[in-house]
From TrEMBL:
Name the UniProt record assigns to this protein: Ig-like domain-containing protein
UniProt organism field: Anguilla anguilla
Region (Disordered): 76-102
SUPFAM superfamilies per the UniProt record, alphabetical: Immunoglobulin (SSF48726)
Top-rank taxon: Eukaryota
Classification via Gene3D superfamilies: Immunoglobulins (2.60.40.10)
InterPro entries the record matches: Ig-like_dom, Ig-like_dom_sf, Ig-like_fold, Ig_C1-set
Domain Ig-like: 1-89
Pfam hit, one: C1-set
Length: 102
């Protein structure tokens, strides 16, 4: 995942890669948190060398980014019972500011 601030929004990418197109295509992505102040979208499957890649992008509003404690990207393979979960700590400690962003 990466974060990038554009227009007071945090943009996070969850990239799925694999050697089989069907496996990448069949993987589903769930973002936590979801709901108010968030939006997500998935890209088309694209070849990347010998691999296939799909990207899910979550956009959080500025307020939501700084109040969330954790953001998760959960990838569930079509025939798997256990998802692969990646965590990203969001926000900042109380009172701390990133220079140039606020």
């Amino acid at each position: 995942m990466r974060e990038l601030f554009e227009n007071n929004k945090a943009v996070l990418d969850c990239v799925i890669t694999g050697g089989e197109r069907a496996a990448v295509e069949g993987a589903s992505v769930t973002w936590t948190p979801s709901g108010t102040g968030t939006s997500s979208k998935e890209s088309q499957i694209t070849p990347h060398g010998h691999l296939f890649r799909k990207t899910s992008t979550l956009t959080l509003g500025r307020e939501r980014w700084f109040t969330e404690q954790n953001v998760e990207c959960s990838v569930q393979q079509k025939n798997s019972k256990k998802p692969d979960i990646k965590n990203l700590s969001a926000g900042t400690p109380a009172g701390q500011k990133f220079p140039g962003w606020l």
